[in-house]
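Attaching the record inline, Q. Sequence:
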Amino acid sequence: MKQAIICPFFGRLRDRFCEYGEDLSVTQRLERIAAVPGVDGVEIVYPQELRDLTDVQATLARLKLEVAAVNVNVKSDPEFVRGALGSPDAAVRRKAVDYLKRGKEAAVALGAQRVTCCPLADGYDYPFHAHYGAQWERMVDAVREAARHLPQITLCLEYKPFETRVHGLLTSAAKTILVCQAAGGNLGVTIDIGHSTFGGEAPADSLMLVAAAGLPFYVHTNDNNGKWDWDLLAGACNVFEFLEFLFYLKELGYDGWITSDVAPFRQDPSEIFALNARFTAQLWAWLDHVDRHQIRECLERDDFVSVRKMMEPYLFAARQVG
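Structure, as predicted:
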């Protein structure tokens, strides 16, 4: 298992009302990430955190940190307010595609195998607000062009039901698969467990759907209560769903990065990310300890009770009460 952290979570964070955390430089963020036990990698944001690529390369080498992915931000610039990859403005789409291309070039320089992109600016707010078919085709064309640039770097698209648009364009695993299939090769899916949960999906089911489509995938871990994308600790609300997701990762032979996408608004980031990495590693190790063949057999016959019985000796020490 290889675990990473998304770099901006060690800097200044904001919600609608307040600011949290310290306004740290990229170097300071990377230094703090490198000190988190169980973490060997980082997901770093283009362009905001890669304006001095040479300095970042030197810092990563000094800290012995690998780059799990370059996260290309096509939502924060003022031009992207009304959309990016699906924008009706050709100049805006050009800027978004160029960001993806430059992000891929940064990935090559940093030794990463993928870029990831969550196009949150793309979508619509009202009925009769967008031409759905045209918007879809614009995104497919933009993604196709970006994917063909440096094809050795996979472009992983990350879906989310909505934010900041009332209706997002990439809202589910299924729609993201359709975009990837329509656009062609060198594409994959970033499965954010919290986005999947927030969208009413079972994350493990979405994972297997992406795998069945033959697409590569990348993983973000976090959790929420299904009401909003709170970016809580993995397993904070849905521990069995998280364990199930990890089980299917093992079934697929996944040996890629598992990246923490947790927002430590009111907690110490170092403590939160150490806990997230530790808990993920504990569940991963448990899946090596138990008889996964037996779990597989139970799943084949829809035998949920027997799987839970296998877990009982490990739950809260499973001591007899009374």
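The two ends are 40 Å apart (CA to CA). The CA atoms of residues 311 and 317 lie 10 Å apart.

More tomorrow.
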